[in-house]
Amino acid sequence: YESFVIEDIQAVGLQRLEIGTILTYLPVTNGDELNDRTGQQAIRSLYQTGLFENVALGRDGDTLLIYVEERPAIASFEIEGNKKIKGEEVDEAMESAGLKQGELFRRVILDQVQQELTRQYYANGYYDVKVETEVEEVSDNRVSILVKVTEGRVAKIEQINIVGNEAFSDAELLDTFKLEASNVFKFFQRSDRYSKQQLLGDLEALSSYYLDRGYLKFNVDSVQVALTPDKKDIYVSINVSEGQTYTVSSLEFAGDLILNEDYLRRLVLLDAGDTFSRKEATEGAERISDALSNFGYAFADVRPLPELNEDDRTVKLSMYVDPGSRVYVRRINFSGNLKTQDETLRREMRQFEGAVFSRAAVERSRIRLARLAFVEDATVETQPVPGTDDLVDVIFEITERPPGSVQLGVGFSGSQGFLLTGSVTHSNFLGTGNRVSASVESNEFSRSIAGSWTNPYATPEGISRTVDLRYRESEQVVRFSSGFDTNTATASLTYGFPLSEYTSIRLGGGLEAVTIETFANQNITSNEVLEFVVAEGTKFYNLELRTGIIRDTRNRTIFATRGALHRLTLDLTVPGSDLQVFKAFYNFQQYVPIYKGLFGEINASVGVADGYGDTDLIPPYERLFAGGSRSVRGYRDGTLGPRDTPRNLFNNPFGGKFRIYAQNELIIPTPLETDNKSTRLSVFYDIGNVFNEVDDFETGELRSSYGIAYTWFTPFLGVLDLSYAIPVGPEQGDELDRFQLNFGTGF
Amino acid sequence: CSGNKVVNKPAELTAVERAELQFERVWSKRVGAGTAGKFAALAPLIVDTRVFAADAKGRVRAFDTGAGATLWTQDTEYRFVAGPGMGADQILLGTLDGEVVALDAVTGEQRWRAMVDAEVLAAPVQDRNRVIARTVDGRVVGLDADTGDAEWEFTRTAPALTLRGLSNPVLRGSSVIVGLDTGHVVSLDTRTGEVEWEQLIREPTGRSELERIVDVDAQLLIDDGRLFTASYGGELVVLSAITGREIWRRNLRSYTGMAIQGDQLYVTDAEGKVWALDVVTGAAIWDQSELAFRGLTQPVWYRGNLIVGDYEGYLHALSPADGRIIGRTRPARDAMLTAPRVQGERLYVLASDGTLAALEGAPVSR
Amino acid sequence: CNLVYKLPVNQGNVIEQEQVDQVEVGMTPEQVEFLMGSALVKSELRETVRWDYVSYYLSPRDKELRRNITIVFENGVVSEIIGASNETDREQSQPVDPPPTR
Amino acid sequence: CASDDDALAPANPFRDELPKRLLRLQADQVYRMARRSLDAADYDGAIGQYRAILLRFPFSQYATQAQLELIYANYKAYAPDSALADADRFLREHPRHPQIEYVYYLRGLIHYSRANADGDLLPWSDSHSYDPTYARRAFDAFGQLIQRYPDSRYAPDARQRMVLLRDRVAQHELEIARYYMKRKAYVAASRRAEDILERFQGTSVIPETLGMLESAYRSLELTELAEATASLAQANYGAPVTPATETSGPHAKPEQLSLPPVIDRTGPETVTSDDASEDSAP
Questions:
Q1: Per-residue pLDDT tens for A551-610?
Q2: Do D184 and C12 touch (CB under 8 A)?
Q3: pLDDT band per the 50, 70, 90 thresholds, residue A136
Q4: A507, B196, B242, D93: which could join B187 in a potential S-S bond, CB 3.0 to 4.6 Å?
């Protein structure tokens, strides 16, 4: 058609879209000349939008007519018969093929869908699958698509046969494989499903098994995968040539070592005379580059270069070190901290901006973030700054844990029965990292009001200060009916001074005012209490000195998985107080990795409380108790140890001056949440007891129990402890409490 | 027929109307554990009056054809998976651990053992003093018949995914013809291993590895200068056995094998249909699909009829005229992985549970 | 004596006398950067292009240790090096605690 | 059950096509219902009805308006992710729609609400010290509006918000610099300060930044740089700068635009939110 100047543009056949949309993508407008070239361009650009089935140009006088046929939209699509492969896998495949409600329908989608589904079934060992697609037209230029799948049987690996292996048996080698021949005893076995990637992975595992044991010349000559004609069984045969073992003749270092050679040599566990092992070589190289990155060489490249000497089958191993340039940190950024202020995170940093990069400092910073009570997880990434070769940004990605636990209304604790409590604890008040908690309690036995505020960074260096105020009236009892009332009011101020990355000391003082009231006449007070009151009186004002030293290398404060906590504390009343009492505790927590995801936790404590100077009886409320979910589970809260007299009237637990217990837990990785950041399931064995005097201790008297415990860090109620314990050989008179539940308890 | 579980269901057997052939078991013996549940190419070997058979756990036995008397039994450590093949006064076996084993035919004593580094999944053959064996990784090796020393090796790398099983090498004069997993057939000189000719039977086509399987697993058949071959990729091709030049080809997918009698070629296809084709043109004369998907073996010619074994241990007799089922017997309970062997009036079958049976078929007296 | 553990503060470039001695007038910025690494204090505030290699170390006992080397550039090459000579710079990279146990 | 191959089933001439008019009427009723729930702030209800229109009447002109108002409904129903997805889809499909400026503006608002969404929860805390990425995204979204439609009626409000956002990010940067000064990490502090001067010209933090930069350089004994900073501060801000306590700059909350504009270009009959001219007999 001969060219003309466009006066106006009209669209014909538009249904869903507007003329505006066409005009946006049309390369020509009013006033342009339409000729073959611009006509072609117009059609091509409209096609490229993918919105139209076909496009044609027409002319009415000087008006350019654009005939378009919009592509039908997909009204609906369903798949039937796909039992084995469902869910996201299939949806993603369909979506990537362009099959989505509302998307535009193109014929090419049909075979893409067919191909994609068939490929997925082949990848999962369904070699017998048949996939058909059907298209049906629906009103309004829309189509609905039906995909029919006949799955057929899955091909299982009948046999994996390794030919040519002498040094190690087939069984030993197949152990390193993830793929396995199908085994009638394994019911839900999925490892007999053939998958090419998995086989490649297994071959990798096979060759590193040999390379890690010195067979440097090991080679997988060929691999055959054969399918039986009925497409039911798969036979894998792997032909290998082992070659001989190689021993290390010498270990040298080459390149710019930065650190001295014997320090590096200690990092590599291979030396002359050892059988060569690729694993040791690569791990040695890794340890060297880690060490280098602690001195700013973040991008050090350390490579083990084995030189084989075939005749005497020895290897000259040289470690080539290229430190790269010394790297500086440009910026440290945090992301994911919606509720935490930047400074609260930045003060945990052991790495400074504008300073030499140190991997150990960055890793230590990450662990310090992960240990914050209000941080569930922290990951770090070091990104080179584009355009420079020695500047990096360090980016910490944190996921916040609900910091607060508001707990109102009903609380339940083994010892005090139902208690009406209202407590608020917030471990990240206003995002400043301060821990604030206030609680009000009232139940049958006691009424109390308490508040505490901890600022972990009273000074920039991290000296923490805790202010704690507490008033408590408890009638009748500390435990059951030993028959006396107490009113105590305490105020304390404690500081924590860090001595090193892992150790800090605790120093502080506290004022304590206590009054005891007994009811000797209505003989509802036990002899022990009366004895004390006679000896020491009923009103005491004490000034307490609190000291202690804590070494904490755990990787998290809640649900830690590595490291240990040692906590030695000594609180004693300063001479001149009414009572001279001291309490010394040693608490020990150790995490022991056992095997892959399995690890154990040991929680032990030894405590002594006694009088000194002219106080020889300690007040009943200072005595130590044991039993219950915090010490020996399976026994009612605080019921272990000596009983008060006279037996017939009371026989209630009266606590003791010496307490020792240990909770040994084996943590089972729960399938639902493998990183057990907010839940923990464990089987445990607890043992311990309370003795009146230190020298009353007898191993025979120790009570123990075993059982299963579940701890869950709830979004609002803080930590929930649930345990079911079976006491071992309980003595007559022990009060048992197999099922115990505690929640809302702070930590 | 919504997406049923099994795509191809084995056909149900219907009673044989007018049986024309009835079978009588002459003797039946047990050969160890049979194939121990795994795929294997173990078959009976009949030499004059002796029948040899092996199992997958290393047991080999020899019987007299007459009444099946046991001549000798040999228990070894080998994991036999193919054979025995016939040698000069020795029998040849292939193992899963990549070994070829020669046992003395008379005493059963081991003569030699050769390591060929890959599973030997087809019965080795012997031409004068050369033993030829082939392995799953696409190699054909020539060994010294007396010592087992390697003399030559022919290699074609096998495709990543193949069909389990290999066609046996076939001797013709001083050449050996082998059907490869690459879809080719090659003729080698037995003494030197040189390639005499190589012919493509079927080109791999299709997108997935599965659609590209073209193994020539069906047993090769030589009859008066013509070589009958079939590829699982879907072609049945007849070549000149001397030059390898193609005579005719038609599409038919088979992994078992063929039989020939007069001007008719009988073949079992991959879906268990038995076909009769005109030997000259390849045109189909009749096809029998009542035994579809029953894992049928290669058909064998026996006293004027066709015999096929199936996956439940049945033997079916078909009339060569129209393929009608004219007889049936069940010598064993378990699948027959290889075709029955015929010697004179006798039929020998080895089932995968280790049953070795000798049968005789006789026309039904009217 | 102040027992409390205070993290030493280290800031700026590590300056090694061996490299400093090699910097000469007339060198291009790339050459300087090859020898000394990128300067961490590059102020935009003034017209003259000037790089400050600052090394500052504050010990836990609040003892300061610093060294500044300034390199001034004119029309694309080094025109002046200030503070290059005097006392050598202590290898002041942060005394790092041993690599964290696995 | 062999299904025929995948040829399209022939269009069935006899199936009764819903008369176009009746279809449009139904669409109109559903739209008005959706609009009523929107006005009554029942956003979830409105979202459901808009989705119904899109699904059942994809070709009516209500579909486009429904798409527009769906964005607003999701925004008000605190579903920023779906609101953003709908907005991007609308921009792609209707680039020339008369209300397109409004959609760009709405995208800015969605990011803006997320930038200090938490601020509102803890009103007494200054929210700018939290994660600044949302503030940056809001800034870019408003930037796109102003760059494409400089004289749009939403531009003034967008500019105002951008100034506030930029100031907020600047304050966040300054706070980090202040921390490093406290820790005597003077190189870190000086680099952050230099960065603020470069990227956040004209924000309220500049005076304090200059003061801080000067003391950082003094502590590093880079007296020449310190002097240069002091003279710059002197030149711009008169007396030597004391760290500004109260951050000046626009802090007023820009007024919220309430409802999306009404359709003013529809088919034959115009629909306004209050009266709907009765259609002729159904």
A1: 999 888 878 888 999 999 999 988 888 888 899 999 999 999 887 778 899 999 999 998
A2: no
A3: confident
A4: B196
Q: Which of A336, A372, A333 is nearest to A353 (CA)?
A: A333
| C4 touching chain D per CB within 8 A | no
Which stretches in chain B have pLDDT values below 50? 1-4
pLDDT tens digits, A426-459? 888 877 888 888 888 777 777 889 999 999 998 8
What is residue D17's predicted lDDT score, i.e. its pLDDT? Answer: 47
Sole residue written with tokens 């005109």: B278
**Which amino acid does the sequence have at C13?**
N
Rounded distance, CA D35 to CA D266, Å? 15
CB B346 within 8 A of CB B68: no
Is A148 touching B (CB cutoff 8 A)? yes
Query: CB of D195 within 8 Å of any CB in chain C?
Result: no
Name chain A contacts of C100, Cβ cutoff 8 Å: 360, 363-364, 367
For the stretch A179-193, what's the b/e string if a residue is b when 16 or more beta carbons lie within 10 angstroms of its beta carbon? bbbeeeeeeeeeebb
Q: Would you give the DSSP letter of residue B312? A: T
Contact (CB<8Å) D186/C11:
yes
3-class DSSP state of B361:
strand
- Report CA dihedral (A379, A380, A386, A391) to the nearest 10 degrees: 170
| pLDDT band at D20; cut points 50, 70, 90 | low
Kindly list the partner chains of chain D, i.e. chains with 3 or more CB atom pairs below 8 Å.
Answer: A, C
3-state secondary structure A519-571: CCCCCCCCHHHHHHHHHHCCEEEEEEEEEEEEEECCCCCCCCCCCEEEEEEEE
- C88 in reach of chain D (CB within 8 A): no
A169 touches chain B (CB under 8 A): no
Per-residue pLDDT reduced to its tens digit, D246-266:
333 333 333 333 444 443 333
Q: What is the pLDDT averaged over residues D36-41?
A: 86
Strand duo B41-42 + B80-86: pairing: parallel
Q: In whole angstroms, what is the distance from residue A305 CA to residue A290 CA? A: 18
Q: Which two tokens stand for residue A56?
A: 């044609």
D255, with CB counted inside 10 A (0-12, 13-18, 19+), is exposed
User: In D, residues 209-228, which contact A (CB 8 Å cutoff)?
Assistant: none
Q: What is the pLDDT of residues A708-729, one digit of tens each?
A: 998 887 766 667 788 898 888 8
Segment A649-653 long-range contacts (CB within 8 Å, at least 24 positions apart): A649/A523, A649/A524, A649/A526, A650/A481, A650/A482, A650/A483, A650/A526, A651/A733, A652/A477, A652/A479, A652/A480, A652/A481, A652/A482, A652/A526, A653/A479, A653/A480, A653/A625, A653/A627
Query: CA distances (Å), B239 to each of A313, B122, B243, B265, C34, in order?
Result: 52, 22, 8, 14, 74
Q: Write down the pLDDT at residue A506.
A: 92
Distance between CA atoms of residues A717 and A743, nearest Å: 7
Judge contact between A147 and A77, C-beta under 8 A.
yes
ipTM: 0.68
Angstrom distance (rounded) from CA A239 to CA A170: 12
For the ranges A70-84, A318-332, B251-265, D141-155, the lowest mean pLDDT is seen at A70-84
CA–CA distance, A496 with A158 (Å, rounded to integer): 64
pLDDT of residue A671: 64
User: Are the Cβ atoms of A158 and B137 closer than 8 angstroms?
Assistant: no
- What's A357's DSSP letter? -
**Rounded to a whole number, what is the distance in angstroms from the first to the last CA of chain D?**
45
**C41 closest CB neighbour out of D183, D184, D187:** D187
Of the candidates B285, D50, D187, which has an alpha carbon nearest to the alpha carbon of residue C9?
Answer: D187
Q: Is the pLDDT of residue A470 over 80?
A: yes
Q: Tell me which residues of chain D, numbers 97 to 156, contact chain A at a CB-CB cutoff of 8 Å.
A: 97, 118, 122, 125, 129-131, 133
